[in-house]
Prior knowledge:
Elements: E1 4-9, H1 14-30, E2 33-38, H2 41-48, H3 58-75, H4 91-102, H5 107-119, H6 128-137, H7 142-149, H8 152-167, E3 175-178, E4 181-184, H9 189-200
Parallel strand pairs: 1-2
Antiparallel strand pairs: 1-3, 3-4
Helix pairs in contact: 1-3, 1-5, 1-9, 2-8, 4-5, 4-7, 4-8, 5-6
Amino acid sequence: MRKTIDYFFSPASGFTYLGHQALMALAAEVGAMVRFHPLDIRRVYAEMGITHPLEQCEARQSYRIEDQRRWARLRGLRMTPNPAHHPVDVRLPCRVILATGRLGLDQDAVTLACLRGVWAEGRNISDPGELCEALHQIDMPAYDILHEAEAEHVRDEAGAVTQSAIEAGIFGAPTYVVDGERFWGQDRIEFMREKLLRAAA
């Protein structure tokens, strides 16, 4: 039976950006399906009483930047340590990613466009115009996607995704879930690979 990876993430998370392509490569390697669950991470933090990373002490913030630089080098990714538009309201990009799925389009490509927009291209992904440009850049029907993203059913779905994540004990991004087991952080992808390969054996 084909395995499923439930992918809980924020479209503006630096560590989600660092792990996104590695996740998709793993899914292709093991033949797993990825289900996309874009989160309003600020709501997750608020409801769980978690301090936002950008509100933590200076030592932790500076370490996060050091660590992201290391991972960006390892992954071969361009990454700005302090993006011009971060933190950013992710409610629109969350809906855009969900709308992409509803239209039968490539959620992987759109998610990466959002993440890359924040961390490599200096985009404000909460702005419809800039998000539209990011979608056009990857040859996606931007106007159709943005129109669908404004539909009431997509707004309801976006709220439900975040709420279901909270109820499932998801407290950070990215978190990957396989058969109910959580893997928090893109540095846990190797543990997830081991689980998936063991299940396929």
